[in-house]
Prior knowledge:
This protein is an alpha/beta fold and about 325 residues long. It is built from 6 helices and 16 strands.
Amino acid sequence: MSEEQTLDLVIVGAGPAGLSAAIYAQRAMLNAVVLEHEAVGGQMVLTSDIDNYPGVPHTDGYSLVEAMRQQAEDLGANIVVSNVSSIQRMEDGLFLVQTDESNYVAKAVILAGGATPRHAGFDGEELFVGKGVSYCATCDGMFFRGREVFVVGGGNSAAEEALFLTRFAAHVTMVVRKDHLRAQAMVARQVEENEKVSVRYLTSITAIGGTNAITSVTFRDNKTGDLHTEEFDNGVGVFVFVGRVPASQLVSELVDVAEVGYVVANDRLETRTPGLFVAGDVRKKSLRQIVTAASDGAVAATSVAAYLGQPVEG
């Protein structure tokens, strides 16, 4: 694309937030492009079962992604697989978005690059993603109804997710590498008082194994270094909550960030830089789900249309 052509909007990221933004941008008749550096759909593609997206029960990540992508493209959305290397705001107020192949100049940008769960790093973790290893209790907890579940992590997120998982699991064991929980006192007390939760301190999971499900878990005593493996007749769940990495590095000098890099935005999803909007898991928010990401995309694109003085279709 020639730098002489100025687009209305560049959307960075083609997950549910980016695809939703693309749909609403087309409805607002914005000249836009969606840039995605990996696979269209983002983290959603990795989800094997989705039961909580309204109107689309009993689906999977790939199918939902394809439906969103097809809807966006049917409306005229232009989705390009290309890695964005930098986003700059120029003196004239326009944005220069550079990729490995092309440069794009736009009046507005929506950053919808998402946030990647930080992996714990034990053997077998990658192999069992979506088949026993999960990074979202709200998404996958119900699939472990009546089973043993392990939660890796000792912070607020891990403790809160462990408590949530007690709604489904027969028992939840938190695996904490230190000798204490880092969760807030009230949350830690709830963990201690819940009969369905136990905590293994100074412990790490080093490996998981099995065929079609996780049937063995190897633990390390972090005090002695000793290893031991436990076997399970039924597949267990291993939920990892050791942090997330938001894809905010591209705009770190243009936005305010909260803890670990989440982008701060107002209810119109505007950042502190005029013309720069944010949507989805990359922004500071209380709930990160496919449905909230899609909502963000709609709000952000509608806000862009208003920012550019375009009529907003209801």
